[in-house]
Amino acid sequence: MADIEELAGDFLSLIQSGQAVAAAEKYWAIDIVSIEPEDSTEHVPVIVTGFDAARDKLNNWLGHSAMEELSVDGPFITGNRFALFIDMLIKRRATGEREPFSEIAIYTVRDGKIIEERYFYG
Questions:
Q1: How far is CA 17 from CA 20, 36, 51, 71, in A?
Q2: I need a labelling partner for 60 at 20 to 30 A (CA). Which of 15, 44, 45, 72 fits?
């Protein structure tokens, strides 16, 4: 079982290399809870529970948005949590529109797996 520093570092490396799905499959717990801001404009549910629902949410987002540029600061680790500050340029697949997007992602870890991810948008 990886300690939180190893987990956060590897998770970050996968994200930075464009492997968000692989990062999720490797580190999400079966009972993960994924929480978006209540006023999200990303057209995703505010809360999803369970690996399959979270994977569907991620795949849906990746289906309509492509990350063209990605910059990540972190991980910032405290106890059993780590945070990533993420800036990206996303392209909306349906319209071709490009827009900057920033978020803070906070992950809670238990037994070597991410049990909660919570997003804050800038």
A1: 8, 23, 22, 11
A2: 72
Which tens digit of pLDDT belongs to each residue from 62-120? 999 998 999 999 999 999 999 999 999 999 999 999 999 999 999 999 999 999 999 99
**Please, which residues have CB within 8 angstroms of residue 26's CB and are 6 or more apart in sequence?**
10, 11, 14
Residue 36, number of CB atoms within 10 A of its CB? 21
SS (H, E, C) 6-65: HHHHHHHHHHHCCCHHHHHHHHEEEEEEEECCCCCCCCCCCEEECHHHHHHHHHHHHHHE
Q: Which residues contact 73 (CB under 8 A, 6 or more apart)?
A: 84, 85
**One-letter amino acid of 94:** A
